[in-house]
Amino acid sequence: MIRFLCRRLLVLSPLLLGVSVFVFAVLRHGKTDPAMAYLRLSGLPPTESLLATTRESLGLNQPLWKQYLDWLSSALQGDLGLSYVTGNPALNEILYYLPATIELTMWAMAATIFISVPLGIAAALYKDRWPDHLTRIFAFSAVSMPSFWLGFLLVLLFSRHLDILPAMGRGGPEFLILPVFTLSFMSMGINIRLVRASMLEHMHSRSVIYARSRGLKKWRIIGQHVLRNAFIPVLTSMSMHFGELLGGAVIVENIFNWPGVGRYVVSAIYNHDYPVIQTFTLVTTLIFVFVNLLTDVLYARIDPRIRLGEGR
Fold it and tell me: Which of 93, 215, 219, 309 has a CA 20 to 30 Å removed from the CA of 284?
């Protein structure tokens, strides 16, 4: 286990390096001049002399590879640059807004698990019967409904017409209901179908047939043989859903005025605040890699046949 964790952590460094190179190159080759964006956000006139001075102070007059190496040297010391808008360290800005986004994402993940897993199990156990048909309708609706459209419909119904739930802001549990459901709705639909398919596949496996021949009770077979094995692909899906939910929070936070990092980064993109965009990308990549590492560790807990030290 320790060797496996060390190997995974070693992979983390080149991955973050590759992401940083890609994002740095894409931003620098954009149509907007960073020096022009900096002056606009500072409220200064973009004269030729000021543009030249700004490019020199930001290091934009250097070759691209030199700009990246300078940025990387500072990043390794914890300095990811200053926001063009506020003048504060970009990392501090991201970390200030990140807890609200993590809260929203974790609740959306919990809603996905506690709603989709029981429905997927029920659909598999009652295949081609009314519970299966109802979950099919639910799953089809979930994957067909864009999150921004669902969010507007929920606000219109529950906030404007019924006036029972708040439409915007962050506060008590009632503020979480609409954004959490909006964010997790599509993931629920995908996961319901995956749980159902995985359950049906393992319900006809050889181990289940042997268990039935030994006279084990139905629910014991489902709990010990079907669910345990069926949750391997589901666990993989959930780790991918976390990244999907984290990215989807960018849209949902703007709909519900949720004070998270997604809403802040949309503003940074609009203002061409490159240090903030780069920092956000690296932080979210780090979170996603950590979640996948945790998923690999959970594999071994669910299925001891998986050898973490081999072929991984």
Answer: 309
Tokens of 189: 């639909």
Condensed to tens digits (0 to 9), the pLDDT of residues 57-97 reads 877 778 888 888 888 888 888 888 888 888 889 999 999 99
Angle made by CA atoms 126, 128, 132, in degrees to the nearest 5 = 60
- 61, 206: one domain: no
Average pLDDT of 249-257?
Answer: 88
| Closest to 119 (Cα-Cα) out of 108, 109, 130 | 130
pLDDT tens for 203-245 read 766 666 666 666 666 666 676 666 666 677 777 777 777 878 8
Would you say residue 28 lies in a domain? Answer: no
How many structural domains compose the chain? 2
Residue 182 maps to a domain: yes
Phi-psi region of 215 (alpha: psi -120 to 50; beta: other; left: phi over 0): left
Cβ-contact 260, 97 below 8 angstroms: yes
For the chain, percent helix, then strand, then coil, each to nearest 5?
Answer: 75, 0, 20
Contacts 24+ apart (CB under 8 A), 225-231: 226/199, 226/202, 227/121, 227/199, 228/302, 228/303, 229/202, 229/205, 229/303, 230/195, 230/198, 230/199, 230/201, 230/202, 231/198, 231/302
For residues 67 and 164, membership in a common domain is answered with no
Q: Rounded to 5 degrees, what are φ and ψ at 41?
A: -70, -25
Say how far apart CA 226 and CA 224 lie, in whole Å. 6
- Return phi, psi of residue 33, to 5°: -75, 120
Query: What's residue 210's pLDDT?
Result: 66
Per the structure, the complete domain to which residue 67 belongs is given by: 34-77
Buried b / exposed e across 75-89, counting CB within 10 Å, b at 16+? Answer: beeeebbbbbbeeeb
Contacts of 137 (CB under 8 A, 6+ apart): none
- Using DSSP, state whether 82 is helix, strand or coil: strand
